[in-house]
Amino acid sequence: MARLSNAQxxxxxxxxxxxxxxxxxxxxxxGQELITxxxxxxxxxxxxxxxxxxFVAALHTAHWALAQSCLDALHExxxxxxxxxxxxxxxxxxxxxxxVAGQLYRGILEEDxxxxxxxxxxxxxxxxxxxxxxxxxxxxxxxDTYHAxxxxxxxxxxxxxxxxxYAQALFCVxxxxxxxxxxxxxxxxxxxxxxxxxxxxxxxxxxxxVVELSPTHTRAWxxxxxxxxxxxxxxxxxxxxxxxxxAASVPKSAMLRDLDALATDRLSAVYASTPAATRTDxxxxxxxxxxxxxxxxx
Length: 298
Fold this sequence. Notes:
Keywords: Endoplasmic reticulum, Membrane, Repeat, TPR repeat. It is a peripheral membrane protein. By secondary structure, this protein is mainly α. It has 16 helices and no strands. The protein has a domain at 1-107. The chain starts with 5 loop residues before the first helix and ends with a helix. The mean pLDDT is 89.
């Protein structure tokens, strides 16, 4: 593969910044190359966004010296910036100096109690200390003010899941689905929480929504298969083991059989081209999946 020019590296990093993503390893690699080549000095005012981007990637990859050099550059340019002080706190967090990080965040909030990002970092410290219930309480209070913060809703969902509070976790992910109804990952999370709660019929509907949005989503097809199989096995009981609302939402047996067959076909097709085993006594992924599909259908 041809080596990227400095301009191409800078353009790729700018695209990562715009999309708010990018593999940290790659960001560090590209960023270090631009600094080594002296090209970072040619970025103009964009260099500060570049340094912050590189700083965060360096934290993710434990490049402490690189993170510190980026932070020093930002401190020199913006000596009174609360944003840079928050980055300083994040560096202490990443190194495990939670007390120092907490002091920095408290100092920011004493000057500006509405600083949303500093508040979120304080909640992250509670989570890092394993104080789950306090983190939940703090996030609930945070969302009372910043109701549209999707990241906070998902973080609260995960905290509830870690505490086995599935009904509350489901509420959180449903709030985000209202904001991003076309996101298959959110519907998948909803489906798996419902399945964990043994709300199989409702979980099946959510899994079907995932494959409607993303027809090749293998994990969702597994969910469809599991739910359809379970519902077919219990259909003879008339829903005796389910609540009235759950029983009323169960699809008819003919539809369940169609969904079960469709899921089997889709999953079989996924593994149809897997390579053969290296040993004659070693099963292939395909044979294992086919055996599972056959067993699930009997």
